[in-house]
Write a structure and sequence with these properties.
Two copies of one chain form a homodimer.
Chain A: H1 3-14, H2 20-27, H3 31-43, E1 47-54, E2 63-71, H4 79-83, E3 88-94, E4 100-106, H5 109-120, E5 125-139
Antiparallel strand pairs in A: 2-4, 2-5, 3-4
Helix pairs in contact in A: 2-3
Chain B binds a DNA duplex (17 and 17 nucleotides) through helix 3.
DNA sequence: TTTGAAATTACAACTGT
DNA sequence: ACAGTTGTAATTTCAAA
C-alpha cells in the first residue's frame, strides 16, 4: 500500500469503468502493471467490490432517517434481525444513550412508520427514536489520500 | 423503469464488472439490449457512477462516529465548510434536536478529536455530540427490488 | 514491460411489434 | 416509433514471454 496504490484507489472510486491503460497513464504505470496492482488490491480485500451507485430516490428511497434503538438486553447477536429489514441500510452498535444506530431509507413517511413497527417487533427492542433528514448535503466515500493509520512497521 | 431495469440495477450493485453478455443472460436479454438499457440508466442519472468500494480500515477509516452538530444560525448554506473536511463522509440537515448530522471516519480517536475541533471552528457551530460506533453489523445499498414509491398512474 | 490471442464493448444496420 | 436482435470493428483484458 504505497502512494501509487492510493492513487489507483482514488481513481477507481471516482470511475471504476476506466481502462487499465487510462488508469496506468494517470499513475505513471504500464497497463499491465496497473492491472496487476488492482488485481492484488481486490484479492487482498482492500477493494471489496466494484458496484453501481444507484440514486436512492429512483428506487424508493427518497426518505432518509437515522434511528436510535434502545434495548433491554445485549443486542450484539441480533444483526440478522435487522439485516432482514431491507430498508435498514446500516446497523451499528454504539457507545452512548441507545444501543444501536440504524440508517433507514423508505419511499414515504408511511413506510418509515412501518419499518419502525418492524424494528419494535424485534426481540429486546424497548424503544426507537427517529431523526429524519430534511436535506442531504453529500454522501461520499473516504478518500484514500487522507492521512494514514500511522501503522507501526513490524 | 420496469422490472428488468430493477434486475439490472440489482446485478450491477452486486458486481459491476460483469459483462453485458452475462448481464443480459440473467435478465433474459441480448448483450446489445442489456448494454442499451444500462446506457440509458447511466444517462438518466439512475446509475450515478460505478465505483470501487474500498475497505475503510485499509485507508485510515477504522473509527466511525456520528456527530450531531448544534448551531446558532441556519446552516443551510454551509455545505462547503463541511465538505472541506475529508473525514466527514455524510452531512445532513435534520429535523430534531441538533441542526446537522455528520458521518465521520478517522484512523484513531485522536484524529476524531481533531475533526471535532475543525467542526467547532466552522462559523455558527455552537456544539457537537459524537456517537462512536463500536461495531458495524453491515453497511449496504438500498435494493432496487424493494417496494416502489407507489407512483400514481396518470 | 511488452506482446498477442481471446474476450468484451461499442456501434452499426436490420427486424418485429 | 420503439425496443430488441444480430453482426462487426475497435478496445480492452489478461496470461505468457
Amino acid at each position: 500500500m504505497d502512494h501509487i496504490d492510493r492513487a489507483l484507489l482514488a481513481q477507481l472510486q471516482e470511475d471504476a469503468t476506466q481502462s487499465y491503460a487510462a488508469l496506468g497513464r494517470t499513475v505513471g504505470l504500464s497497463p499491465g502493471a496497473a492491472h496487476e496492482r488492482v488485481r492484488k488490491l481486490r484479492e487482498s480485500g482492500v477493494i471489496r467490490r466494484t458496484t453501481a451507485e444507484v440514486d436512492p430516490t429512483a428506487i424508493g428511497g427518497a426518505f432518509l432517517a437515522y434511528v436510535m434503538v434502545d434495548s433491554t438486553s445485549w443486542m450484539g447477536d441480533s444483526a440478522n434481525a435487522f439485516a432482514a429489514i431491507p430498508e435498514v441500510l446500516e446497523a451499528h452498535i454504539i457507545a452512548g444513550a441507545a444501543s444501536l444506530l440504524l440508517k433507514v431509507r423508505t419511499p414515504t413517511t408511511e413506510q418509515l412508520q412501518d419499518v419502525l413497527r418492524r424494528i419494535y417487533a424485534i426481540d429486546g427492542v424497548s424503544g426507537t427514536q427517529a431523526t429524519v433528514s430534511l436535506e442531504t448535503f453529500f454522501e461520499r466515500q473516504l478518500s484514500p489520500t487522507t492521512a494514514e493509520p500511522t501503522a507501526g512497521r513490524p
